[in-house]
Design a protein that fits this description.
By secondary structure, the chain is mainly α. It has a single domain, classed as MFS general substrate transporter like domains (Growth Hormone, Chain: A), CATH 1.20.1250. Helix content is 81%, strand content 0%. It has 23 helices and no strands. The longest helix is centred in the C-terminal third of the chain and has 53 residues. The termini are far apart.
Length: 472
Amino acid sequence: MAGFVTTITKGSSNRFLIRLATVAALGGFLFGYDTGVIGGAMLYIKKDFHAGTLAQSSMVSAILIGAAIGALISGWAADAFSRRRTKIVSGSVYVVGALLCAFSQNTLQMVGSRFILGLAVGTASFVSPMYISENAPPRVRGGLTTFNQLMVTIGIVVAYVVDWGLASVSNNWRWMLGLGVVPGLALAIGMMFLPYSPRWLVEKGRSDDARQVLERTREEDDDIEQELSDIEEAARREGGVRDLLSRAVKPMLVIGLALALFQQFVGINTVIYYGPTILKATGIGDGGALQQSVFIGVTNVVFTIIAVVLLDKVGRRVLLLTGNVAFFAALVLLGVYFASSPLQHHAQWLALAALTLYIAGFAISLGPVFWLMISEIFPLHLRAPAMAVCTIGNWLANFVVSVSFLSLTNLITRQGTFWLYAGISIAAFIFFAARVPETKDKSLEEIEAQVGAEASEAYPQEKGKRVREARA
């Protein structure tokens, strides 16, 4: 970590980048806080609202439907109003949603309030990595863009600490949910002091303003004029959703959607949303489950920091595959634990160990790599609609996994559910090894050129079309 910090803070432009990435990544904190806080709060909400399995699943997953819709409109909003203004609005909406959650009087009101939260979270989750990657130079883009995922994990651990600390307070779950106002305000206010994305400025014909932003975020020896020229060229070829189905782009869309779906279908948010419930099933009480959840949350933060350091050193693919092996082993171990009565009676620590290994593996691989790669692999003129499609797919997969977890454990047992996720992780590993490219140390423009060349080789007629266009 020291090496990364030294590299990124040794110039005024880099210090500005750190500030920019930290504030922008508060969008990730919003998602992390809400994801973590609902697990502990649900232990008390279900008692006050007399909520059964369906009601609990609805309250947990309502945010995900809102997030999918938020992601759907965020691509349009980011282009029409700017990445910056879209994030200001998302922070403001989150404040409203957090207050409505805190004052909910029944299940229906809670479901509606969490849907509103989802609109904010879905928008922020899409725009944050896009905004950071468009401002970051190639040498630190991986680490900086992963700040968003780091803030997700910090939000989760802060939520766990809040749940644990407020467990004995009157109206505890209302305070747990209501404190989400703080990061929402921080995002809305903080973004007011950050610049517009240089790519958005170019799209709006404000190249001089874009040059000024690049001068603040690049070092003296960076070729700003060449980068600005590349951005202007990409802007002239701006496309829409329909263009994503072209033969040149479809392979990258498949990779982006596969990363989106696998990130959720390996079961990550069952651990985050229902972590206290899973730990409570080992025989410990509410307080013990919340305390152990804090430990899991800290592990998430630590290994995400490791990912931030390593992504621009060892590359995306190595971390993706290594982490996949780790969480596969953890899922198998969780299944073995819940399938064995002797282990449940005499080795309760094994569940915590398996969950910790699972979180560590996910935090250095699919957690940050998905959000980073969808901000890198698509051609610049199609990045907004492509990222929107992948983000929507991610939120819908999140909804499917979250709403089905409790029902699956009743239908095929806890161990069967974890083994199902383990099987999916095998398929994920095979796909990643075969199809996911390495994007380390390449500018966004270089990645676009590489992807275009690979697509042309795969589809000769597309190559011919490019040649004809170039000649024209």
